[in-house]
Structure formats: structure tokens, C-alpha cells
Amino acid sequence: MRVLCIGDIVGKPGRSALRQLLPALIERHGVDLVIANAENAAGGIGLTSETAKELLTLPVDLLTSGNHIWKYREVYPLLDAEPRLLRPLNYPDGAPGRGVTVVHKEGCPPVGVVNLVGRVFMDPVPCPFDAAEQALDQLAGAADVILVEIHAEATSEKRAIGHFLDGRVSAVYGTHTHVATADEEILGGGTGYISDIGMTGPYDSVIGMRKKEMIARLRTLRPVSFEVARQDVRLCGVLFDIDPQSGKARSVQRIREPLKP
Description:
single chain, 261 residues, alpha/beta, Purple Acid Phosphatase, chain A, domain 2, seven-stranded mixed sheet, 25% helix, 26% strand, globular
């Protein structure tokens, strides 16, 4: 089976790219399941209920997220109510929503998905390694195909998660930095891996935001109002081809599709 994982959707340009490019990508690559990170889909940071519902009208089977999911409190009830929306699993007890699920789609085997967040250069959340272990215990017997998204800053932490789970899950992929890495591979135990799948949004930018304001912020260290950029919009992600019987990855392919003006 083929699973398309889409990198962080950034603002309206990212949503437009998804709407216009995704159907053709699904047809061209024979995609069976689509997972998309939506934590920056509303104005470039955070997710609103309205935006989440908009994305779920598209051929997207599951939305994942990261540390920015908490920006808009109005989305909290949706995290509890909408089974197609995940937040990172390893937040303290009492956080709304869920971080692990099994996707049941006609024509596909059950697919387990685990959404983790890192803690190197990020908030001191509970251990993602322990959370991954707990998730695998929860998924035992429920799904042979399992994908793990690690939303993290440090490539070292992402690779460590990949090797920690090698042979036990179908794929591990990173999000959060908005910069795609060129290290896609199948690890020794048969797990597909890539450190970061990039972003779906404007690439004539600094990780999706207008260059002028981001440069000013980094040069002056003073607060600056950021605005989502508009030019050179692309849909980026990764395509995993997975053997549904063994749960092992057969191939890993980076996806970069430009939105034509």
C-alpha cells in the first residue's frame, strides 16, 4: 500500500496547494492513504476548527500536528471530538485529544498512526521514546502497518527515534523544521525513514514567512509581526510504499510538487 505524508501546511497558500495538487498526486502515484500535518494551517501558526474542517473536506484521511496545535483554544473541543485529528501523544495527562489512532479505510488494512513531539530545543514534554513504547502496546493486534510522525527540532533526536523503532513500525518521518532532508532510506529492520518531509507552502520565504520580517527579527532580536509569504508555493512530503502483510517499507520517495501560477 502507498501512504502519502504531507509536510506542515502553512497558511492559505499551503491549503491552496493541497486543494489544487492533491487529487492529481493521489491518482498519479496510486496513493491509498493521505496523512497531513496541519499545525500551521491557520495564518501560518496554529489550527482553528474552521480550518481543520476545511482540510478534512479534501482527500485527507488524517491530520497530525505538533507544538503549535495549542495556539487557538477554540480547537481544543475538536481535538476531543474529531477522530481524524491528532495532537502529539507525549503531552502531560489532561491534554485534550489523542496522539495515537487506527485508520480504517475501505480497501486498506488497518493503519496505526502515532504522533509524537520532540523535546530537544523544545518544551520539556514527557519522553517521546516512552510514549512510543506505550503506543505500540496499544496498537498490538490492531494494526500491522504503523507510521510514526516525530515533530521535532533536532535531527539527532529524530534519527534516534527512527532507530529505536526500526523493525517495529513501517515508517518514521519527521516534521516541524519546514526544510526537507535528503536522507530518506529504509533502515536495517525494514522501517522507512526520513528526518523531515518539508512544508506545504511558500518557499520564497523563511520557513513560510515573509523574508523581510524574519530577517529583521533575527538581526534586531526585537519582536516583529510575521506574515505568511505568497510566492513559489509547493506541496512537499514523502511517499511510503509498504508491504501490508509484513508491515515493512518497500520504498521511500520524497515528493515536491509546485503550484503553478
